[in-house]
Amino acid sequence: MGAAGHLILDLPLGQIGGSALTSNLSVPKHGSVDELPTEIPITYVPARNTIFLSFALAWAEVLPATDIFIGVNALDYSGYPDCRPEYIRAFQNMANLATAAAIHGRETRIHTPLIALTKREIVLKAVELGVDLSITHSCYDPDPWGAACGRCDSCLLRKKGFAEAGIPDPTQYVVERT
After folding, report:
1. ω before 28 within 30° of 0 (cis)?
2. Widest pairwise Cα distance in the chain
3. What is the number of alpha carbons within 13 Å of residue 41 lying toward its C-beta?
4. Is residue 65 classed exposed, middle or buried when 0-12, 13-18 and 19+ CB atoms within 10 A define those classes?
5. pTM (two decimals)
6. Which of 50, 51, 43 is nearest to 12 (CA)?
């Protein structure tokens, strides 16, 4: 995809657990977006974005790079506390207190290009940028062959975004069996 570098790290979040995404808890399913919970759901992974940003910060300092991008969203999302603008500001402040790079004048900036966009706006921006949305995935509980469940929070929000954008959703969803 044109990246200058790519790093894959093992993050054994399953050893920590505490979430339907990292343990044996069932991923909640709903019939519509209107049924989504208003409180923080059990799909929240404890400190996930802090972990991601910490690893990104460490690698950025080594490269050296001053800009970190993360795809958090504070609008059409499931209520995760580490997707809010105030969290991102706090992490950036911490990063600039915690690194030798910042002490030597090379401060880190955390960029969140999706944070204030609706799912509709994200879909439209992706189309505008020429992103092949058929290779993207949102499902919290895909089947063993990779088909999206179509009923978890993330699938429902994705479907809503595509519908509101008037763009066909290329996602392969599990065929409902009756």
Report:
1. no
2. 63
3. 20
4. middle
5. 0.89
6. 51
DSSP strand pairing (109-111 vs 67-69): parallel
Per-residue pLDDT reduced to its tens digit, 26-38: 999 999 999 888 8
Alpha-carbon span 92 to 69, nearest angstrom = 11
Spell out the long-range contacts of 80-88 with Cβ–Cβ below 8 A and sequence spacing 24 or more: 80/40, 80/44, 80/48, 80/49, 81/40, 81/44, 82/47, 82/48, 82/49, 82/50, 83/49, 83/115, 85/112, 85/115, 85/116, 87/49, 88/112, 88/115
